[in-house]
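Thread: Newbie trying to understand structure tokens

Hi all, I'm a second-year student working on a class project, and my supervisor (Dr. K.) asked me to get a predicted structure for one chain before our next meeting. I've only ever worked with sequences, so writing a 3D structure as a token string is new to me. If someone could post the tokens and maybe explain what I'm looking at, I'd be very grateful. Here's the chain:
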Amino acid sequence: MFFKYSSGKINELKADSLVFFVLQMEKITDKKLKELDDASHGTLSTLIDSQEFTGKKNEISTIYNPEGYNVERVILVGLGEKKNLQADSFRQAAGVVSRYKSLMSSSKAIFSFGKFDKNDYFQATIEGYLLGSHKFLEFKTGEDKKDKNALKEITFVVENQRHLQRLEKAIERGRIIAEGQLLVRDLSSTPSNFLTPKILAQKAQKLARSHKIGCRILDEKAIVREKMGAFLSVARGAKEPPRFIVLEYKGAPTNQRPIVLVGKGITFDSGGISLKPSLNMHYMKGDMTGAAVVLASLVTAARLKLRQNIVGLLPATENMPSSTATKPGDIVTSRKGLTVEVINTDAEGRLILADALDYANKFKPQAVIDVATLTGATLYILGYAGAPIMGNNPKLLQRLKDASQETAERVWELPIWDVHREQMKSTIADVVNSGGRPAGTITAAAFLENFIGDYNWVHVDIASVDMEPKGTAYIPKGITGIGLRLFVELLSNWKKL
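---
Reply by user tm_fold:
Sure, no problem. This is what the structure looks like when written as tokens:
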């Protein structure tokens, strides 16, 4: 995709399609829209009078061959009411238009912002377009492998020439962030026979080399030397060997303590001996989405040249049933030395995160944030709408909430009470890995809390927001990639806690 930038009169620019972002209206008051209405002999007025198009949120319509314009069609996209206007309004509108056949059949298009001149509007627009139009075609063949979208060039237009430099910077930033989220989607959509722990480690190495990120891979012997007994207990049943991936991005002076991101990397989760039901088990190829979010976050931070030191820890393994697999009732010893009674082998993500959270102490972090598709119980708390967060530092939790507001990747804080901590105690070991169904999302965090060090910590559970069941404006049905924009926004505005 090639991007161009311009200012001034849109009717002097040549393209196949012109996209107008339009606020909801009862009558035409905007000068540019009045000009369009005159050029189309009152077509826009007719659309408004008939309620076919009034600028409602994500509403879309087309006017063909307006006089005096060098375009075949003008595509109108609704932003909704002015009082509710925010960056995500543009993200959604651009996502909707990205799959609109009139635009997809164009080779060149103009996106006109008119009087909308905020940086976050510009950034959100390209994010919405790229996220909404993306398709995962890696394993398609023949005609189905070809991208049907003919659009190859977009010219972004603002009224004031003084805004051009800001426009270009914002579009470039949005493109990089969207590509980071698409990296998450592509990794998480890849079948587990094409993304084993070893292959994930190789992909991480390749990306790290490309973006000058430090990368170390701990193989099974190194993991044993680190005494990661909880992590190894999950890997025991799989033929594919585990990998522990360590990424280091250095964008600040060496004396600045790093922010550590930890991502769950179960490349396939069968449930182990506590076998999952076969229905929808194929989705468990995406149980490494937390690791994908962390990997893509470091890549995106490097591409944006963020002035932070960031470490990514990705424990990667399969969770499989076999004669060597950990059994319910087994007791394992974590890297921290705490013993864990394994009640349910399908509560495996917290076991690999436990050793990773303890390993994070090596970096003397100012904060650690883990992200994981951890508990199905999230579905009964926030549905598909948002991710629960829990932690030990109110400031850090609030910053995630602030980042959530900016990115429209919703999070909601849940408490960890002593009753939840008691629920995770074992009668024959230090802790159990499952406290049963009651408060399952919270008790999983209460388990993880046992393994953190003396650092600020937040746990983000993306178990239900990682998959979109129906499709929304800029998130087609399937893997969402949610978490990437949230983390990049947090890291971009990081302040010492």
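A couple of things are worth pointing out once you decode it. The mean pLDDT is 97. The chain has 15 helices and 20 strands. Feel free to ask follow-ups in this thread.
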